[in-house]
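User: As part of a screening pipeline, I want to sanity-check one entry by hand. Below is the sequence and the SMILES for calcium ion. Please return the complex as structure tokens so I can compare it with the automated output.
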Amino acid sequence: MPAPKTFFPLGFAIALWLPAPALHALPFADTVVSFTPGGSSFPDSSFGVEVGDGSGSVYKGPLGPGSYDPSAVTALDGAVLGLGGSDGTPGSITLRFSGGEVVDGSGPDLRLYDTFSFKDGFDLEISADGAHFMNAFSFAGDLGYYECSLQRPCTADVDIAGLPLDAFSYLRITAAGTIIQGFPEAYTLDAVEALHYRSTPVPEPGTLALFSLAAAGLAFVRRRNDRIAG
Ligand SMILES: [Ca+2]
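Assistant: Here is the complex for your manual check:
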């Protein structure tokens, strides 16, 4: 009866493979909690999604003035969301690391990527619970530089050392400082990366179910082996 012997290694392989995804969680903010586009009274100025020239982006979602797609800001791919709000209400977006939190490590802990044209200004707030936010960083903008691209991203690095929070999962970016008009207007966000990150050590329900399944399979094989032995 060779069959049960092949079941055993398979069961162990499944048990070893299952925890792997938790160890390799994506370090980019993966969820948009909310987006409030900014207003503008300037003709031809608007928030929206755009892809930089020659970026080689694989982004296939909606583009153009007034467009919005969460997937534009959850991957570093050359697709950006201009927050809008050169006058009136500044545009604002709240993102979350759903599988863990950014922690305070040596040097910068968080990196914002702008891959489209001008370096626009913004304010950054962070929060551990998604309800209480605190100011963490401000970038005034530099409109003398307009060569941000996927190949040469304009990055803003944030070190949370010295802030009351030493870990956070939520961040809010609001257009501020020097802002370029036109489309896409204001800060053009491509993605947000955690440089120091800790996965939440709680298995997902689906993983637990698969573990139970693997355990049941092993128990079945053991019973079967016992029966054969007896
Ligand atoms: Ca993007």
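Points to compare against the pipeline: The helical segments are 3-17, 20-23, 205-229. Residues 72-73, 75-77, 79, 190-191 surround calcium ion (CB under 6 Å).
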